[in-house]
Amino acid sequence: xxxxxxxxxxxxxxxxxxxxxxxxxxxxxxxxxxxxxxxxxxxxxxxxxxxxxxxxxxxxxxxxxxxxxxxxxxxxxxxxxxxxxxxxxxxxxxxxxxxxxxxxxxxxxxxxxxxxxxxxxxxxxxxxxxxxxxxxxxxxxxxxxxxxxxxxxxxxxxxxxxxxxxxxxxxxxxxxxxxxxxxxxxxxxxxxxxxxxxxxxxxxxxxxxxxxxxxxxxxxxxxxxxxxxxxxxxxxxxxxxxxxxxxxxxxxxxxxxxxxxxxxxxxxxxxxxxxxxxxxxxxxxxxxxxxxxxxxxxxxxxxxxxxxxxxxxxxxxxxxxxxxxxxxxxxxxxxxxxxxxxxxxxxxxxxxxxxxxxxxxxxxxxxxxxxxxxxxxxxxxxxxxxxxxxxxxxxxxxxxxxxxxxxxxxxxxxxxxxxxxxxxxxxxxxxxxxxxxxxxxxxxxxxxxxxxxxxxxxxxxxxxxxxxxxxxxxxxxxxxxxxxxxxxxxxxxxxxxxx
Length: 499
Description:
Blueprint: H1 3-13, H2 31-34, E1 43-45, H3 48-54, E2 58-60, E3 62-64, E4 69-78, E5 83-87, E6 92-96, E7 103-104, E8 109-114, H4 116-176, H5 181-225, H6 227-234, H7 250-259, H8 263-267, E9 286-289, E10 294-299, E11 306-307, E12 312-317, E13 322-329, E14 341-344, E15 358-369, E16 374-381, E17 395-401, E18 409-413, E19 417-420, E20 423-429, E21 436-441, E22 443-447, E23 451-456, E24 463-465, H9 469-475, E25 485-487, E26 493-495
Parallel strand pairs: 1-25
Antiparallel strand pairs: 1-21, 2-24, 3-18, 4-13, 4-17, 5-12, 6-8, 6-11, 7-10, 8-9, 10-12, 13-16, 14-15, 14-17, 15-16, 18-23, 19-20, 20-21, 22-23, 25-26
Helix pairs in contact: 4-5, 4-6, 5-6
């Protein structure tokens, strides 16, 4: 039932003497009642149905410094890192996997690119593994070949010693016997052949040593630049010394940067223990995933479009990464400091149980307007669970407690008080019964336009009626009469405690 219907029924109700359709029979009054000593209550029943019909809401009494509190108007804006753009790291054909304004979480796929350039990059990694394996195998082959040449050289050196001794023996025999010239010539010829073969063997051995040194240097370069691919190619174990500087595979890091993932993810084994397969070998298309949660803001390309390297494909925004930018007066600069407590108020300025103010920390901006004599004041939320109204573009106000302010005092919103005849009243929620409110005179102090100090009658944590107070005053009699009563479920009011 609407407030208008409730008040209309209330007007009809006042034409009768009681809740029923027939007048209640009069009862004899006692002498005490005839002298006007009937107990008067200031309590009013407000069950949940009535609160809904009259729009009654409550706010809590709180401690606030009023005289040193200033309010500045402003608007919410995205923080610098709220937006994120996704660029094409490789040229190719685009397939969009999300819709505009779709919510995404970290890791959700956004765009897939079919890129010939990725195939070339993938082929270069495979070729590097092949080159490392080939060089490693060639080094082993050269080692065997060098060993064979060394053995051959040893045998030649042994033959040279044999022929050298043979020539000496012939020369000794020729001195004593004679007729050894032909044998000497034959021995010298054989020795010359051995020397020639030995020289060739030494030359071959030198060439093999040079090639082995070259391959060893190349393998060292492979291991230094691409240690992960080196291990994949030759199966060597990586260094395990904890004091060793972590190795970086420049080839995989380059690919990881292109794909937007880590090199560790590229190294993941997607095969079996017997037949391991690195993940980078199985990637067919370049997938771009969300790096931070948020909402898809703009789609810069369409499905099937060809994008070039560096082109923006999609942007997202984290709607929770906002800050409040207000315009403060330069005259307050002497009492403004970085780090002061600031509260951003809900649109409309009054916080209820549902629409609480947003706790923030003040930061003085760099922008000052000499003509308007204002300074930008930034409030960065200190809460992670932001209220629903803290969104980009929402205009509201921010409360700042200036440095050196007075001692906080009990305060309630100004609109939680109402003028009834010659007095101002407050409806306090009964602490013992949440379905009752207590009408009390408002003993008020200073106010700042939105909040007013309460001198007596309330304590911190009490709840007072804020929304629907005017309807509550009208329905409960008003005009300064402290008459108790109750509401019916339809929102109509009846004086007295009888139901």
